[in-house]
Amino acid sequence: MEIPLLVTDFLSRAAALYPEKVAIIDGEQRLTYAEFERRSKRLAQALVHAGVEKGDRVCILSPNSHFFLESFYGVSQIGAVLVPLNYRLVAGDHEYIINHAGVKVLLVDQDYVEMIDAIREALGSVTTWVVAQEDQEAPAGWVNWERWIAGAPDRALPDPGLRETDLVSINYTSGTTARPKGVMLSHRNCYLNAYNLTVHLGVCHDDVALWTLPMFHCNGWGGVYALTGLGATHVVLRSVDAQAIFGLIEGHGVTFACMAPTVLNTILEYSGRDRHTITTRPRFVVAGAPPPAAFIERLEKELGWDFIEIYGLTETSPLLTVTPVDHLTRREDYGRRSRAGIPVTGVALKVCDEQGIPVSQDDRAIGEVCARSNVIFEGYWKQPQATAEALRDGWFHTGDLATWDASGSINIVDRKKDVIISGGENISSPELEAVLYEHPSVLECAVIGVPDARWGETPKALVVRRQGGEASEAELITFCRERLAHFKCPTSVAFLEALPRTATGKLQKFKLREQYWESQSKRVN
Ligand code: AMP
Q: What gap in Å lies between CA 436 and CA 431, rounded to an integer?
């Protein structure tokens, strides 16, 4: 008999084994595993009462909260599909996604009610509007979450007869020029990703995990499931703030967190008194952009915390590779540790050319990263053509360009569409950015290609300086030229207050390019 891999098992296990253990710390609130399970079940009962059936879509728009964690389990135990929305998107994006996914029930944090009300008329498929707030009067047209779940009949839930290929969530990818695409993730995808998180990042029962990563982003990289399954404690952070992060790490003895590189920047820049009083040695898992080696070194030396790099995409649930400190990699080898790394269990990778043939494993030849695994998504929701383009010949094509070495370790050099071609040579913007990060004045930077009469394209650096950092354009160009082949170096530098990023900290280089073109057209006019 086949027993399906279902993510709902994670909460059932923890609630059976550790009913009294604190599962969630959210501000002043503490929920035990028994309460976490009970509240998720009440949510499931309320959804059934509202007419939600297996396969129906339920949307949540919320910052990190205990409601959000409950929604993952409440929705999937009746076989419905969660659509977590990115709260940094504008109302028009939400309208597009909610309609594209055909959402039946909307679960919305109170801070976002006004935004949704503005597009309410256009959301024809929605039948139930629930506001995530403690027990209080809901705004007109909404029902309060607590009262809604309290009012649902306490009946046995229907058995949805789940198979492991049934969907858990549809996660809309953000941040590109095109409309967001709905990535369909199944129970099997999410289950195996959670398993890999546990195995490769050493998640355990004693972990106290800080949620700096938004839960909407690829289901918090799997922490929703892995941490829950092991009975670890979730510490919820609603919005990123350095002082709050240090306070929570110290106050709750945080041992583990997944975060975007930009959050680590915030941490490194923080100079509060409590910075050096932390007694745990947290493990920080970072993904989303290639981290410069200088950045890892600073993090470990200045804070004494451990850093682990992983690489993946929403389409891959997301974990594909990891850079463990192991017999291949010494702790002090920051260069190697900043690589995307080696495949996790159950993932086959190749770096290949346009014909799908693997490029040489010499760490020089560049190709596209392709993956084959049970963590690869089920396709894009209602977009068969985009699905067929991404899933070809049994391999998922990531759109990331990389080199790989003889050990199979991947080094991401760029997104396919971000690579700079100057005088016929490919220039990897992350390589150049990594050098700029070594300069003490540089807090953040991004390199884009801009037109050049002689070379076709030339690199331009956009830099945010650290507090008190005074490096000039000429100084930064010289700094790069002393460390890199000259053709790779920026020929101009502009200083900005901040870089445009998605909610998960991913640089939006297309916005930088747009800003560049706007400034050029102003010049012409
Ligand atoms: P998302 O689907 O929003 O998680 O974005 C996935 C993309 O983020 C990948 O295709 C990569 O371009 C980038 N990415 C994620 N992790 C890393 C990493 N460790 N190094 C370099 N790029 C990364």
A: 9
Radius of gyration of the chain (CA): 23
Cβ 444 vs Cβ 499: under 8 Å? yes
Ligand 1 centroid from CA 347, angstroms:
16
Q: Which atom of ligand 1 is nearest to the CA of 175?
A: 3
CATH code reported for the domain at 419-524 = 3.30.300.30
Q: In this model, does residue 326 exceed pLDDT 90?
A: no
**Residue of minimum CA distance from atom 9 in ligand 1:** 313
Which tokens is 308 given? 């682990």
pTM of the entire predicted model: 0.87
In the chain, where are the structural domains located?
Answer: 419-524
Q: What is the dihedral of CA 85, 88, 92, 95, to 10 degrees?
A: 10
- Separation of CA 401 and ligand 1 centre (Å): 11
Give per-residue pLDDT as tens, 159-174.
999 999 999 999 998 6
CA of 412 from ligand 1 middle (Å) equals 9
pLDDT at 520 over 80: no
Ligand 1 pocket, residue 449 CB under 6 Å? no
Tell me the pLDDT band of 177, cut-offs 50, 70 and 90: very low
Q: Is the CB of 296 under 6 A from ligand 1?
A: no
Dihedrals phi, psi of 33, to nearest 5 degrees:
-65, -35
